[in-house]
Amino acid sequence: MNLFQSELKYYLRSPIIWVIMSLTAFLSGWSFLMSVDIFTAMQIKFVGMSDAPTLLQGIVTPVITAQTKVQLLIIAIIGGLSFARLNTNNGWSMIVSNQLNEWEIVRQKYLANLVVVFLFVLPVVLSIMVLAYVANLDFLVIIVVIMSLLLFIMWMLAIALLLSCLVDNSGFAILLCIVVFIFLWLLSQSTTNVEWGKNWIQVISPFYHFKQINNEVINMASIFFFVCGTFLSLSLTRLRLLHKRYTI
Amino acid sequence: MVDINLVIESLSYVYQKQTILNSISLELKNPQTITLLGPNGAGKSTLLKTLAAILYGQSGRVILNQLDAELNRKEYQSQIGYMPEAALIMPELTVKEQLQLLATINQIDESQKAIDSVINRCQLQAVVNKRTHKLSLGYKQRLNLAQALLNDPKVLILDEPLNGLDPHLIIEFRSIINKLKNDVLIIMSTHYLAEAQLISDRVLIMKNGHLIDDIELKNIKPPDYDLEKVYLKHMENNT
């Protein structure tokens, strides 16, 4: 039994997580079937259009984009609970008085949370893979789209872990995560001065970079943003643990 | 029996401009059970945390058999068993799983042997497969003690281990402590003066971050000596 397994057990032995997982699976399945249904119904109209949307534009991208909105709540709950809940069961005493280094604690907790969040998106990923197989879509493009979702989740979860270890109450940690995530989403909606060139406010938002990768072209700047942002947040989380170790 | 020599040299700890520990100096040797007494806010828990190398004083040193608590934190902590006031309870795990987790993260060799040993010593056999949040208070305290004993420590630090226990559980706890006292140096804090007198070989009285008395109880027992009277006298004198 290590910290990774213990963290997984915390979520997977919690009935509320399975209820939320069932609900999100239902919502994801429903939105996927609706997209397929609408796309099928629109086929007659598409025949006459010169730039009719492809399956990728009509189903895959909207479904994956909808997932990013659902994940705002899921990541806030999973990531928000990770460290903040330690106050209720005296878990910090375990964190500050053990022989593991801080980086190892962060790594094991992060990976366990990542696995749990991936379980939430698994139904959608499987549905899209099946659709791609049945409809003979280009798998490389599908993989890029799914990778963009995974990078987005990794980035957001790292931020959630950082926020979680900054506060002492798990409810507040979840709320703080939701507020920060919505703020980041709002930044991506900003159109201020966009006609004059690059909108730098948008560039801060992970939603913007998610869209960039979703343009069917691998955008290295956006991948760099996700990877570096994840690493930076986890490093700050490690520093926070180090600080806790010497001040608790 | 291994010789244990725990030395505290002019230890001071300040938190938010308030002096919690004021130049404490002590030398503790085994086999002894040492009890810290004092009112709330006297600095007992802070002193125990500095002895467990969870906190470090702004000045002074804590040295266990030549090992400095701050400079050699890992080696030092591997020889210390710390039982916090509030038990660490991970509701998602069973008693056995929680002990396995603690053994893993504290990098304990032969972890299964260590786990079996503490289960026996703390009489946890009946609840090994029970989820920790479903345990009674008595079993939670035993689990708390088992966690502190996992690394087979030379020094066992217990922060208010008797809190909330009923008389029957206090007697059980006392018998566990009495069995342990020959192997390890036990340092505990409590508000139960009668228990302190029964369990301890030495009593340290603290007030406002100062160590105000250091009493050897080895050879003096009631009715010749009444700890309660001595304690109350100290509290009145130093108000």
Percent in strands of chain B: 25-35%
The CATH topology of the domain at 1-79 and 157-165 and 185-239 in chain B comes to Rossmann fold
Please list the strands of the largest sheet of chain B in the order they lie side by side. 6-7-8-3-9-10
Overall geometry of chain B comes to globular
By CATH, the architecture of the domain at 1-79 and 157-165 and 185-239 in chain B is named: 3-Layer(aba) Sandwich
What's the main sheet of chain B like?
6 strands, mixed
Number of helices of chain A: 11
Helices of chain B, by number, come to: 8
Average pLDDT figure of chain A: 85
Tell me, rounded to a whole number, the average pLDDT of chain B: 83
- Oligomer status: heterodimer
Structural class designation of chain A = mainly alpha
The total strand number of chain A stands at 0
The most extensive contact between chains is: A-B, 22 and 26 residues
Strand/helix succession of chain B: EEEHEEHEHHHEHEHEEH
Hey, roughly how much beta strand do the residues of chain A contain? under 5%
Spatial extent as radius of gyration of chain B = 18 Å
